[in-house]
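Lab notebook page, bench 4
Experiment: in silico fold of construct C2
Operator: M.H.
Input chain length: 254 residues
Purpose: comparison with the prior construct
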Amino acid sequence: MKNKLTPVSMFHYFRLTYRSLLFLALLAEYIGARIHGRGDLTSALERRPAIISVICAVFIVEMFLRFFPSRLESPGCQKQFARNYVKSGRTDVSISDNNAVVLVLLVWICFNGVFGALHQLGVLDDGAMLLLACAYSVCDMICILFFCPFQTWFLKNKCCCSCRIYNWDYAMMFTPLFFVMKPYTWLLLLLSVGLLVRWEITFYLHPERFSENTNNYLRCENCTEKLCAHKKQLRSLWQEIADFTAEKRKRLLK
């Protein structure tokens, strides 16, 4: 039986759509500016401040709303709030992926350090760093909806709902903006870091909210997202396509 998309999942797909369109629009502008010699992407955007204002406003609103409880957000980022702490009666706080957090942080810093070095050397301009941040915003939704390398390769958590670093997403997304010395880029970066700091402080003050052992809100039966079911459906679909393709190839080779 097919599972219907929940409101939370639909909101994820909506964000994936407009972030993808934004990336494609910025990519087209970047290529056009380079071909026609109109300067880099940042200069082209700054000639139309309304565009920058709209883009920044969208992400600022997204991040601002993360500071408060919301029914349209994933339980993964909502578990930090006291109202979502449903006591299980147990006291053994267990967060299996906590030891991998430092490794994720180091990998992310080193990975983006390469782009930062290329920017400092003049190989990448400010526009390329903006594009990279925008690409990260699309990848963020891909991680939630389809495949997350951090979950699979490092954290080994069961799903986004129990993710130890869920609210790191905006800080990771806007890491390239550290190298773009513009007021609007630093505003986005500082707000995203604020989200991360608030998340980490809450984790160390109230670790019981982040553990499935002590917080029933994180149990599968209470999940309002149900992305696991959709991911399983997608995997099944890809497997069916692969099997069909393999069968077709066999028939053609006979």
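Observations: The mean pLDDT is 89. The longest helix spans residues 7-35.
Next step: discuss at group meeting.
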